[in-house]
Amino acid sequence: MNDTNVTSRTSLRITSGIVAVIFTIITLLLSYLQITKGPNLVGLMMLTVPTTIAIIFWWVTARVHISESRRLMGSALKYGVIVGFLSFLLGIIGPLILGYVSGLSADQGPLLGIFITGPLGAILGAIGGYLYARSHHQN
Fold this sequence. Notes:
Layout (H helix, E strand, L loop, with lengths): L2 H35 L3 H23 L3 H36 L6 H30 L1
Helix pairs in contact: 1-2, 2-4, 3-4
């Protein structure tokens, strides 16, 4: 491994560590609010996004120098983006189509894709991509 790769991976680890700390603080603050104000569904869903981002960046910080981990990270990222984007589109377009067909107004339809189906699809896609890559490597 040459010096450029070592330097770029070190820079990546430092940068991802800083981002991981920021999102960990956000996660802890949102968790504190959930505990003190009482849990609610919207708050719990909002908690999943920074928590997932923090986990991913801690993973990069700890294991980007290992080639097998980089392969798993790439697969998780790829499938997370694909499934997240598709579920985001489904969450936006689905209510609009159903509202048009049924004759009802679907003004708040895009919110489903932005706040629920998009983030959950990205999380589930990343988990699925990780598991897929891990299972195919073992065969």
